[in-house]
């Protein structure tokens, strides 16, 4: 009986080993093999940007960013909500570079009425143009100028005249030639600058110290030349003064104003 039991045990173990071994899949010779479409795996090729256009995806475009990426191209494409800082605008104006919003290339022809294809938004000269004439600077002036127009379409550039007389003359010239809509003159001699500028009939200059002064001046004469002394002002005070000065439409003389 012992021999029979050992024989049965060997048979049972053999059967169990067989059952535990995973079966080998056998493909029928007649079964078709599905072809793998290699082209389906390939990603579609992305269209390369035009060779005559620099594309920037940053939300804030600075002059330094443009200078480091520009390759003598006539056009720069930026996101629809990208902010152009004053230094960026100076760079663009200096090199006469066209700015295109939304990242789209300009269409060869304007969209016709009823057409579903609209031409991309191209930045125009409709923005209000302000210029800062810096006789007296401020330790944080660069930051103030960057932040004063952040999120707006206002164009703000700066020049550095050698004296208050030169600054006043430059402001009068820019205003009378319609090169700018408004000017901000930073100097210790705000009263002198305003008095000399107001000798020209097309200039409405005001010496300002606070935002309250500025709001009252805007209500009474809508000054197109604001004379400020930046000395002793904090970053926030100076930024608020410049932001308030440049916010809104171009300054226009009140209806009751006469030359």
3D structure, described in words:
By secondary structure, the chain is α/β, with parallel strands linked by helices. Helices cover 35% and strands 14% of the residues. It has 9 helices and 10 strands. The strands form 3 sheets. A 5-stranded parallel beta sheet has the order 7-6-8-10-9, with helices on both faces. A 3-stranded parallel beta sheet has the order 1-3-5, with no helix packed on it. The radius of gyration is 35 Å and the shape is elongated.
In brief:
With 259 residues, the protein is α/β, with parallel strands linked by helices. The protein is 35% helix and 14% strand.
List keywords for this structure.
259 residues; alpha/beta; Ribose 5-phosphate Isomerase B, Chain: A; 2 domains; 9 helices; 35% helix; 14% strand; elongated
Q: What is the fourth-level CATH superfamily of the largest domain?
A: Sugar-phosphate isomerase, RpiB/LacA/LacB
Give average pLDDT, whole number: 78
- Give the helix/strand class: alpha/beta
**Estimated radius of gyration:** 35 Å
* Main sheet specs: 5 strands, parallel
Put simply, the count of helices is: 9
In CATH, the architecture of the largest domain is 3-Layer(aba) Sandwich
What percentage of the residues does DSSP assign to strands (E)?
Answer: 5-15%
Low-confidence stretches: 103-113, 115-125
CATH topology annotation of the largest domain: Ribose 5-phosphate Isomerase B, Chain: A
């Amino acid at each position: 009986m012992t021999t029979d039991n050992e024989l049965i045990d060997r048979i049972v173990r053999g059967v169990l080993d067989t059952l535990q071994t995973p079966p080998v899949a056998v493909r029928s010779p007649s079964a078709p093999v599905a072809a793998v479409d290699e082209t389906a795996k390939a990603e579609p090729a992305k269209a390369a940007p035009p060779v005559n256009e620099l594309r920037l995806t940053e939300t804030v475009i600075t002059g330094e960013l443009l200078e480091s990426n520009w390759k003598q191209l006539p056009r720069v494409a930026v996101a629809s909500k990208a902010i152009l800082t004053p230094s960026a605008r100076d760079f663009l104006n200096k090199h006469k570079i066209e700015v295109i919003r939304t990242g789209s290339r300009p269409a060869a022809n304007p969209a016709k009425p009823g057409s579903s294809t609209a031409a991309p938004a191209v930045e125009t000269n409709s923005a209000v143009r302000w210029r800062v004439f810096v006789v007296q600077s401020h330790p944080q002036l660069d930051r103030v100028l960057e932040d004063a127009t952040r999120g707006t379409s206002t164009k703000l550039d700066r020049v550095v005249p050698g004296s208050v007389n030169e600054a006043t003359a430059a402001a009068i010239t820019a205003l009378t030639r319609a090169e700018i809509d408004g000017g901000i003159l930073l100097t210790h001699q705000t009263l002198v600058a305003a008095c000399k500028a107001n000798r020209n009939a097309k200039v409405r200059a005001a010496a300002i110290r606070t935002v309250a002064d500025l709001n009252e001046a805007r209500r009474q004469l809508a000054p197109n030349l604001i004379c400020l002394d930046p000395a002793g002002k904090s970053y926030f005070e100076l930024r608020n003064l410049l932001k308030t000065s440049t916010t809104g439409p171009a300054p226009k003389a009140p209806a009751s104003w006469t030359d």
